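Re: that backbone. Tokens:
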């Protein structure tokens, strides 16, 4: 007599949530303003504006761009604004800061596109391993969002989870 093998994980009420499903593809590039500095120290407005006019901004079409300065220089705030104005028609994402800041911003956008309503009242396992590097800040933000709607939160794989949080059951008393 043969017994059927039952996949208990597939029958489980657990919802596996993989952030990698929300990864936003596209090249990531940085624009280092240090290359535009006069004598490596200061930004000349006239020269900078001339460069803005001559530069081919179409090369950033569909790219995620971070703006930064690798030199120890004081850069006027309008510099970044002028760059953003030029990039805005082409770039998918524009961030002032490091490559890490760019990744955080891209993931932040991705988190806003998730339909959290379908996860309400569910037991959710947030998948932790994969081929895509996901910033820890993204996991923290996801958990903050999910805690308000889920019944239970876990981390890992459905077959091996680390419990994170469980909604308290409200106890009711029967008054006679």
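Recovered sequence:
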């Amino acid at each position: 007599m043969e017994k059927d093998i039952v996949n208990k994980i597939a029958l489980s009420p657990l919802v596996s949530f993989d952030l990698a499903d929300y990864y936003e593809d596209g090249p990531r590039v940085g624009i280092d303003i240090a290359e535009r500095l006069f004598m490596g120290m200061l930004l000349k407005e006239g020269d900078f504006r001339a460069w803005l006019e001559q530069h081919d901004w179409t090369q950033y079409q569909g790219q995620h761009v971070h703006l930064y300065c690798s030199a120890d220089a004081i850069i006027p705030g309008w510099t970044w604004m002028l760059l953003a104005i030029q990039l805005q028609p082409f770039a998918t994402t524009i961030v002032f800061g490091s490559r890490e800041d760019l990744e955080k911003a891209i993931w932040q956008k991705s988190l806003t596109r998730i339909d959290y309503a379908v996860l309400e009242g569910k037991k959710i396992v947030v998948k932790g391993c994969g081929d895509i590097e996901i910033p820890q800040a993204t996991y923290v933000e996801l958990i903050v969002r999910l805690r308000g709607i889920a019944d239970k939160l876990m981390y890992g794989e459905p077959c091996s989870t680390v419990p994170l949080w469980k909604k308290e059951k409200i106890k009711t008393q029967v008054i006679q």
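The chain is about 30% helix and 20% strand. The chain has two domains: 8-24+106-166, 28-91.
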